[in-house]
Design brief:
Elements lengths: L2 H14 L2 H8 L3 H15 L4 E3 L4 E3 L1 H23 L9 E7 L1 H18 L3 E7 L6 H4 L3 E5 L8 E8 L1 E5 L1 H7 L13 E4 L7 E5 L5 E5 L4 E3 L2 H9 L4 E5 H10 L3 E3 L8 E7 L7 H14 L10
Parallel strand pairs: 3-4, 3-5, 8-11, 8-12
Antiparallel strand pairs: 1-2, 5-14, 6-14, 7-12, 7-13, 9-10
């Protein structure tokens, strides 16, 4: 039995929901597709499909098998295209994982321009602040902010991410501007609970050493957009990346404080699974993001 042909036949049946439709897709007879799937089940020693005269459904084993073989077939397809001259242009579906707020503000608006440049690419974007396992969940690439902990992935730095402590001019006029990080203990601080240690803000000292200041405040949120709105309304000091508040700082709606103490070690990165032949669609997208966002991000522009 041709195992790859049998896997392709099973995947086609699972995707189309019928042997007839799968046969049409594969340009084979219905009986040939049925024999391939039956042979695959016999070789595996497991039933992959529930068959009745009126319906067709995946078994539990079939669902798990289908999730795995679709990735295998995709890899085979990519490998075939990688050695084909016709695959010089990016094409195919690109699954992207991105952080929620940065995704809404900057990543999503960039995608139409990329699709115009690469008309044979399709994009499936998932925005979520949780950690995404690219290989397990079948993503081609992820856009991440901050320290990268998974050394098994290929990473490319796209742009610097600059943190600022800021508040509205009205708040600072009423409460005064902190001169040192320690002064924050006397201020209303807007706390991002999406951080590993939300109430401990990190600053760089004059000697370059990092110091952690415990802050307090009556408003906490797991989303930077909510903290930005609270700061704009004069409710306290927040610490956010400039991709949130760059426009507000330029407009004077927010004022920066403690600039000399802010750490400079954050970055926006693209990560993707290692491969001997990086697919053209992944390479094209990473290059596009690097041009779009770095090395001097537009959200940090002075004017």
């Amino acid at each position: 039995m041709d195992r790859l042909a049998a896997i392709e036949a099973f995947a086609a049946v699972a995707e189309t929901g019928s042997f007839s439709a799968a046969a049409a897709r594969l340009r084979a007879s219905k009986s040939a597709v049925s024999r391939l799937v039956s042979g695959l089940e016999a070789e595996l020693g497991a039933r992959l499909l529930h068959r009745t005269t009126r319906s067709l459904a995946l078994t539990e084993a079939g669902r798990g098998y289908f999730e795995r073989v679709t990735r295998i077939l995709s890899d085979v397809d990519e490998a075939n295209r990688a050695v084909s001259h016709s695959q010089a242009a990016p094409r195919g579906k690109l699954r992207i994982a991105g952080p929620m707020s940065f995704g809404f503000l900057h990543l999503a608006p960039a995608l139409p321009d990329f699709l115009r440049q690469c008309p044979e690419v399709e994009i499936d974007l998932a925005m979520n602040d949780r950690f995404v396992d690219l290989i397990e969940e079948g993503f081609d690439i992820a856009v991440r902010i901050g320290a990268l902990t998974d050394s098994s992935l290929v990473a490319r730095r796209l742009a610097p991410i600059r943190l600022v402590a800021c508040a509205s001019p009205a708040y600072l006029a009423e409460r005064g501007a902190p001169a040192t990080p320690g002064d924050l203990r006397a201020h209303e601080c807007l706390i991002n609970t999406n951080q590993p240690q939300p109430s401990h803000w990190r600053f760089g000292g004059p000697d370059g050493q990092i110091q952690s200041i415990e802050v307090k405040g009556r408003l906490s949120a797991n989303n930077g957009d909510a903290l930005r709105v609270a700061a704009l309304n004069g409710f306290g000091i927040t610490m956010l990346p400039t991709f949130f508040v760059g426009g507000d700082l330029r407009a004077g709606a927010l004022a920066q404080v403690l600039d000399d103490f802010m750490p400079r070690d954050h970055a926006l990165s693209a990560v993707y699974p290692p491969s001997r032949h990086v697919s053209p669609k992944v390479r094209a997208f990473v290059d596009f993001l690097a041009r779009r966002f770095g090395p001097r991000p537009y959200w940090d522009a002075v004017e």
